[in-house]
């Protein structure tokens, strides 16, 4: 991705657009930051193949639609300020929230997200799943309308879990996993902004661990995980443990943000939403376990030929460090908490 200098330039512009939105104190500057971010990301998406061109076009059309809706909703704000009508204020809030949720790919506005992910490289996918969500989440924190946020959180959790079934593409699997996590993050944002930041940090870190792995071995489909010949059993187990950590299985680091979210929901007496989120995570854990189950068995068959993978040793060291934190992170944090 970073072989060309113009891509580094567009990456810096993309970061600058997000920072403008996050630090803005007016709707106009926030909108400008989002548009700068969008126009910088589209050249990064284009990898000179048909799939990436199609993905960049889909992404542009969807984001342009969201920008149009946000512009339209600003008219309602002007009318509300002039006439002081409560109903128009609520409609404008719903429209702005809908445009922001469409930009970030939360359900029920998630129709474009998996299709765009299919045509992207893994580094671009990581930017789309993580960095491109920062600015919309900050705008959501400015305009909170609880009924719509709760509806989108529940819908995202259920859609992300159920749609992951029967997927053979790792890109689509990561996309639906991202939608499922978005449901949790929307609920954490509504309860506590610091809790959302913690959840987002852990989510970004766990995604990075898996993206580095997929990059090293050039993995795109689930069956490639089964045909992958690995001399080191420790490395193979760490690879599948990272998948379970992203799903939120208790002994691993991915369980910690979900644990904190469940605690806040219990303290707020929102047991019904908590149960829906937990059941959706159990469903998503099923298709992670489906990938890991055969590899964990004693009679697991591997291919007889060895494939020579050419990957950077520095990337390998980064992966092993991130993987060890992902697998042992909950234990390490618990020990630090006990000592303090």
UniProtKB/TrEMBL annotation:
Transit peptide as UniProt keyword: no
Pfam family for this entry, one: Proton_antipo_M
Substrates-to-products reaction catalysed: a ubiquinone + NADH + 5 H(+)(in) = a ubiquinol + NAD(+) + 4 H(+)(out)
Entry keywords, A to Z: Electron transport, Membrane, Mitochondrion, Mitochondrion inner membrane, NAD, Respiratory chain, Signal, Translocase, Transmembrane, Transmembrane helix, Transport, Ubiquinone
Ranges of residues in domain NADH dehydrogenase subunit 2 C-terminal: 285-337
Top-tier EC class: translocase
PANTHER family for this protein: NADH-UBIQUINONE OXIDOREDUCTASE CHAIN 2
Keyword check for Nucleotidyltransferase: no
Leader sequence segment: 1-24
NADH:quinone oxidoreductase/Mrp antiporter transmembrane domain mapped to chain residues: 24-284
Subcellular location: Mitochondrion inner membrane
Name of the molecule in the record: NADH-ubiquinone oxidoreductase chain 2
Topology term for the membrane: Multi-pass membrane protein
EC numbers on record: 7.1.1.2
A GO molecular-function descriptor: NADH dehydrogenase (ubiquinone) activity
Function: Core subunit of the mitochondrial membrane respiratory chain NADH dehydrogenase (Complex I) that is believed to belong to the minimal assembly required for catalysis. Complex I functions in the transfer of electrons from NADH to the respiratory chain. The immediate electron acceptor for the enzyme is believed to be ubiquinone.
Gene Ontology CC annotations of this record: mitochondrial inner membrane
Family in the record: Belongs to the complex I subunit 2 family.
Spans through the membrane: 59-79, 88-106, 143-163, 199-219, 239-260, 272-298, 318-339
Superkingdom field: Eukaryota
InterPro entries on file: Complex_I_Subunit_2, NADH_DH_su2_C, NADH_UbQ_OxRdtase_chain2, ND/Mrp_TM
GO BP, sorted A to Z: mitochondrial electron transport, NADH to ubiquinone
């Amino acid at each position: 991705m970073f072989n060309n200098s113009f891509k580094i330039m567009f990456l810096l512009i993309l970061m600058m657009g997000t920072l403008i939105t996050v630090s803005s104190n007016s709707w106009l500057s926030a909108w400008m930051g989002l548009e700068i971010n969008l126009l910088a990301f589209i050249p990064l998406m284009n990898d000179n193949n048909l799939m990436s061109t199609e993905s960049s076009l889909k992404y542009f059309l969807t984001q342009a639609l969201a920008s149009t809706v946000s512009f339209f909703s600003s008219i309602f704000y002007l009318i509300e300020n002039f006439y002081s009508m409560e109903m128009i204020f609520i409609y404008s809030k719903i429209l702005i929230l809908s445009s922001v949720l469409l930009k970030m790919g939360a359900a029920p506005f998630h129709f474009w997200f998996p299709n765009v992910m299919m045509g992207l490289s893994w580094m671009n996918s990581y930017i789309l799943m993580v960095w491109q969500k920062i600015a919309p989440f900050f705008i959501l924190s400015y305009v909170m309308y609880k009924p719509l946020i709760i509806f989108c959180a529940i819908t995202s959790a259920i859609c992300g879990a159920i749609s992951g079934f029967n997927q053979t593409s790792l890109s689509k699997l990561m996309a639906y996993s991202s939608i499922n996590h978005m449901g949790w993050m929307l609920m954490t944002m509504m309860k506590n902004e610091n809790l959302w930041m913690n959840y987002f940090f852990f989510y970004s870190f766990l995604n990075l661990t898996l993206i580095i792995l997929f990059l090293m071995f050039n993995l795109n489909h689930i069956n490639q995980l089964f045909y992958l010949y690995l001399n080191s059993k420790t490395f193979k187990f760490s690879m599948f443990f990272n998948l379970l950590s992203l799903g939120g299985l208790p002994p691993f680091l991915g369980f910690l943000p979900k644990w904190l979210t469940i605690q806040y929901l219990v303290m707020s007496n929102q047991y019904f939403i908590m149960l829906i989120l937990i059941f959706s995570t159990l469903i998503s854990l099923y298709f992670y376990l489906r990938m890991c189950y055969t590899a964990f068995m004693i009679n697991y068959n591997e291919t007889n030929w060895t494939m020579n993978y050419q990957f950077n040793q520095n990337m390998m060291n980064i992966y092993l460090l991130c993987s060890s934190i992902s697998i042992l992170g909950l234990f390490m944090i618990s020990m630090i908490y006990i000592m303090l």
